[in-house]
Design a protein that fits this description.
Blueprint lengths: L2 E5 L3 H12 L4 E3 L7 H8 L3 E4 L8 H11 L4 E5 L4 H9 L4 E4 L4 H16 L9 E4 L2 E4 L4 E4 L2 E4 L2 H12 L5 E2 H9 L7 H16 L7 E4 L3 E4 L7
Parallel strand pairs: 1-2, 1-3, 3-4, 4-5
Antiparallel strand pairs: 6-7, 7-8, 8-9, 10-12, 11-12
């Protein structure tokens, strides 16, 4: 049974979501002290975090940043805030997805199922733990990339995108193909979400001086090239 931590201060909504998710065999936990979210996160050890933006003490962005600094656990925002900047901010902080309130419960379930499948049930090619690309070692199990310049940790989404691009190295992977692979059903994700994830991935790879090996093919998609093809 997957453990979900729902960081939501609206007791009515929390109880409703908990009841519905429990019917899908998820073990749902809440927060008792919104000043001690990290302590409760550590104690719960959830497989997925669902978090609102507007919370007592500190907002959801703060806690997303704190969680992401300690863990690569998938994070799903569930918020009434609907400005594009809120969605972009969530993704830049390392969130995996964003659902706006009010929401249809079927959409929430679809999002949760897609994230959990993606994170905890990789296809058979994931058994290949290490991959060498552009002089860097990519560790699919630890979600890390390292070379002589250092090492970086990627979120599950970022590593999934990198793996998909490396597996089709020197070939264009369309945006549609990436969206379908990532979220299983492209009706439940915006095109902007993919852009944010790719940009965040490239920015991290820039720390190792290899971000430019992920090329954007305008109007088509993305391509991971290798050193040999560059001038």
């Amino acid at each position: 049974m997957f453990k979900l931590l729902l960081i939501e201060d609206d007791a009515t909504l929390f109880n409703e979501v908990k009841e519905r998710l429990s019917g899908w065999s998820y073990d749902v936990y809440g927060i008792t002290d919104f000043a001690q979210v990290m302590q409760e996160f550590t104690a719960t050890k959830p497989d997925l975090v669902i978090i609102d933006i507007q919370l007592p003490k500190f907002d959801g962005f703060h806690w997303c940043r704190m969680i992401r600094s300690h863990s690569s656990v998938p994070i799903l925002f569930l918020s009434s805030r609907d400005h594009p900047s809120d969605i972009v901010m969530a993704m830049q902080l390392g969130a995996d997805d964003f659902i706006q309130k009010p929401f249809h419960f079927d959409v929430l379930i679809a999002k949760i199922q897609a994230i959990l499948r993606r994170v905890y049930d990789y296809s058979s090619d994931s058994q290949i733990e290490l991959k060498t690309w552009c002089g860097a070692t990519v560790d699919y199990q630890k979600n890390t990339v390292g070379n002589d310049a250092g090492s970086i940790e990627l979120t599950k989404n970022e590593m999934f995108i990198l793996r998909e691009l490396i597996n089709q190295k020197n070939k264009i992977v369309t945006r549609e193909a990436l969206i379908k692979s990532l979220w299983d059903d492209e009706r439940f994700v915006s095109d902007n979400t993919l852009t944010v994830n790719v940009n965040r991935l490239r920015k991290k790879l820039d720390e190792l001086s290899i971000g430019h090996f992920i090329e954007t093919k305008v109007g088509q998609g993305y391509m991971a090239v290798d050193v040999a093809q560059l001038p």
